[in-house]
Amino acid sequence: MDEGSIRKRKESHNGSTGRSVNGRTKDKRPEKATVLQKDVGLFSGVCLIVGTMIGSGIFISPKAVLLYSGAVGPCLSIWATCGVLSTIGALCYVELGTMITKSGGEYPYLMEAFGSIVAYLYTWTSVMVLKPSSFAIITLSFAEYASAPFYSGCTPPLVVTKCLSAAAIFLISIVNCLSVKLANYVQNFFTAAKLFIIFVLVGAGIFMLAQGKTETLSNAFDGPSPSVGAVGLAFYNGLWAYDGWNQLNFITEELKDPYRNLPLAIMIGIPLVTVCYVMVNVAYFTVLTPTELLLSPAVAVTFGDRVLYPMSWIVPLFVVFSTFGSANGSCFTAGRLAYVAGREGHMVKILSYVSVRRCTPSPALIFNGFLGIFYIIPADINTLINYFSFAQWAFYGMAALALIVMRFTRKEMHRPVKVPIVIPGLMLIVSCYLVLAPIIEEPQIEHLYCTIFIFSGLLFYYPFIYRKVDWARRLMRPITMHLQLLMEVVPSEQAEWEGTEPTENSRP
Asked: Model confidence over 399-408: pLDDT tens digits?
């Protein structure tokens, strides 16, 4: 190809015919540059938070929270307290997200406060285990509810559930690879669907209360006092249902006006979910006794069979919608973490590439989907909720500590939102309790395995990231090139167009 044709292609790509690059800001911005676009507004942000938080947890976790709390009263108290804790944590993330407007959740905050090693260990744990295993658990819940009508009176075969879960992961990953707007439309639709079924359940519960169905609620605090470790496990399962309150911080760079929309979306979404969760649990207890709730294989479906018959079929249908939407939100944000980690050199470079045609981080999304399918294979991955929850809350605590540390070490950083320092302090204390209490109360060898796995990331950090060994680069260069050609992806353009915020918070 001659020099003239190359020049014409560059000029055509830049949208100019002979103008200098420095004059680019005077031209109209091209329809799409090869970067992740700012396509997420306030409504989509609220739908992402609400849609990711309300997944399978409210339909599965009520049993575990009641089991560990011991009575109806403590159970409802724990559900409400989990909402308060999520709000406290979200307030910390509002300050962090408006102070450091980078995608990747806790990753850029840990990088700014504690440096490369801590940020890498977070990425290693989240990208390799926490995000894909959460994706797998949600799609397994989706598969169980979706296949149940075809196996009336018995449990669906495990192979059917796993194959349907893998198909859901494949479909959701494809949707997110095709278009950010399409993924947002899917998220908005399924969020509306899950709010509809929540309102139906709450409305049915209010109707039953009006009829005097208050036997279970009248003796709400009758029962044995739970141990410290049992309370910790109850909070784990309750907070599992609330997990997702920090999802918007994973896509900060794609938010329209993040200084406004990030705080608003968080402050609208989390209180809404808290009210829904507490009211749904109250509705459950208007019809089910604690023993019946614990014995029910699917609490929401059992409730629907007793209250909504002959329209009870809408409950499992909308639970399928709810879990699918939650899985879509999980996939959407998990891909951004792998993308940012690849961009910063903490993961393989191909993960930071963007689709030329779609402007989506398709390599990162495909990688997350592949790991999600891998985690479906084991017989029971629900134990990961308990064994890796302490790791997740350890990182939440580290993010709160990062906020406190940067109040003293990075005083010059602009803070559009500044919360009282007591809030991250309280978040840090709660995180320490949730990490340490179950381990002290009932230590398990699996906790040691999880800790070993987290720090095993240093075995890869030293040679490949710190030392940057030459043979690894030579090995990855042809692999990256072939994958780049296969998936039609390129490195993200770092141009700053008119109207965008400069990267003033970049780490020096």
From this structure: 999 999 999 9
